[in-house]
Specification:
The protein is built from 6 helices and 4 strands. By secondary structure, the chain is mainly alpha-helical. Among the domains are: 31 residues, no CATH class; 25 residues; 77 residues. Strand 1 and strand 2 form a beta hairpin.
């Protein structure tokens, strides 16, 4: 090998100018667009179709069998052998066709109500609350000793700070007495948590 074959002539260096770079970029974009168009035309000549609805699949999804999950599920369910569709019957509340007893949560809530008329239901609720509070008052009355200082108990209730409630340390339902020594102030949340526990 001659010594001159490996030498590079410094005067032959290629100068890349801005115009030449711009021309190269345009040529590469044009080449990519032409190649893409060639593939699009080839796909349009022989496209793929969805097995269920027979719509043309986009080129980027040409290897898929279905255009959507819905079509896939419909196709799968239609071709399953031995699966019978469950008969639908009317909703127990509104009469719409459904697989269950009720067609929705709202129908279930309305259908399970014992008293359908809202005015009568409200009156029933008020009567129930009155009955419960009357029973409680009777228990309190029965469990208030004769020698209890009723005036002091009333003052204790009247002086209850805001955000607090009067609580029986030993609950009335557990046999506690309605006396001043058995009363205490608790916050609303503490009193709700305590309920009728000791």
């Amino acid at each position: 090998m001659g010594s001159g074959s490996c030498e590079v002539n410094s005067s032959m260096t290629l100068k890349l100018t801005h115009q030449r770079l711009e021309a190269n970029r345009k040529n590469s974009v044009a080449g990519a667009t032409a190649t893409k168009q060639k593939f699009v035309e080839a796909y349009d000549a022989n496209p793929s179709y969805c097995k269920q609805c027979n719509t043309k699949l986009p080129q980027d999804k040409k290897h898929n069998q279905f255009c959507s999950r819905s079509c896939s599920a419909t196709f799968s369910n239609a071709n399953k052998i031995g699966i019978e569709k469950k008969p639908r019957h009317p909703c127990a509340h509104c009469g719409a066709p459904t697989l269950n007893k009720y067609c929705s949560i709202a129908c279930s809530a309305n259908g399970r109500k014992k008293i359908k008329d809202p005015v009568k239901a409200k009156q029933h609720h008020r009567n129930r609350v009155r009955e419960i509070s009357a029973n409680y008052r009777a228990k309190v009355k029965n469990q208030t000793p004769a020698d209890a200082d009723r005036k002091a108990i009333q003052e204790f209730y009247a002086n209850c700070p805001e955000g607090y409630e009067v609580d029986h340390k030993i609950p009335i339902s557990k046999g506690g007495l309605h006396t001043l020594s058995n009363l205490q102030y608790l916050t609303i949340t503490e009193n709700r948590k305590k309920s009728n526990k000791l």
